[in-house]
Amino acid sequence: MSREGGTMPDLTGHVALVAGGTRGGGRGIAVQLGAAGATVYVTGRSSGSGGSGLDRPETIEETASMVTEAGGAGIAVQVDHSRPDEVRALADRIAAEQDGRLDVLVDSVWGGDPLTDWEHPLWEQDLDSGLRLLRQAVETHVITSRFVLPLLVARGRGLVVEVTDGNTARYRGSFFYDLAKSTVIRLAFAQAAELRPHGVAAVAITPGFLRSEAVLDHFGVTEATWRDAIAQDPHFAYSETPAYLGRAVAHLAADPDVIRKTGRALATWSLYKEYGFTDVDGTQPDFAAHWADALVDEHGPLGDPL
């Protein structure tokens, strides 16, 4: 199927759940799954009927509308993924409305930005905030999988995608942030081990330098004017939109041999080479290659940033 962004897969008839699909990478994934023709349940706390406390304008209803406009069917469901009863009800609803069918579970629940302390070491951080970050960014993923995985297992096929930051063991700059993002990779690894006998694959995936709504706001630019921020940060020239991550996931979801990748931590910068997708402007950002080629100081390579 030829769609904008290269040859896009056809996911017509597929059902996906994107947990944490309000904004950023989650929104990008939801919309691109919709562009491939899927029915996408978009969940999160930020709804027109109530916010998440993050003081952001994006809502799950907006994302669901974008999914539908892209060619799929978007269904917004307000869910706090830290509450097992709400996640159980979500799984029951999907089973009832889709005759038990679920093909893809994407867990992009995060909400940890206001809880991340980039300035202090562990022994100087607020413990309450750090533990809240772990509950928000790790426990929510465990709770979601606990109640949603049975839908995939029952069908004997499907894909679980854990969205993270980076796919290496490098330190990510803040203790609790690092612990959360590296643990998400381990969640994919552990689920892969248990799901493989049931024909279900589980992977972690990372974008490069992501031009999320919050990042654009941080630089004081929009997606239309994002290049103006390169003067503030030259590395921003190698950034990518959330759609790039979404196209990577759409191709994974359509790959009949995706089980070969189960248990791996993947990245947009390697998957575009395999599947041939592009970002919205037709480019193929590769932040890892940029880091390897350009970020060398007088002492030699600075190491892997991702």
From TrEMBL:
- Entries under InterPro entries matching the protein: NAD(P)-bd_dom_sf, SDR_fam
Species assigned in the record: Actinomadura syzygii
The parts of the chain that form a coiled coil are none
Put simply, this protein is called: SDR family NAD(P)-dependent oxidoreductase
Write down a Pfam family by its short name.
adh_short
Q: Which domain of life is it from?
A: Bacteria
Q: Which Gene3D superfamilies match?
A: NAD(P)-binding Rossmann-like Domain
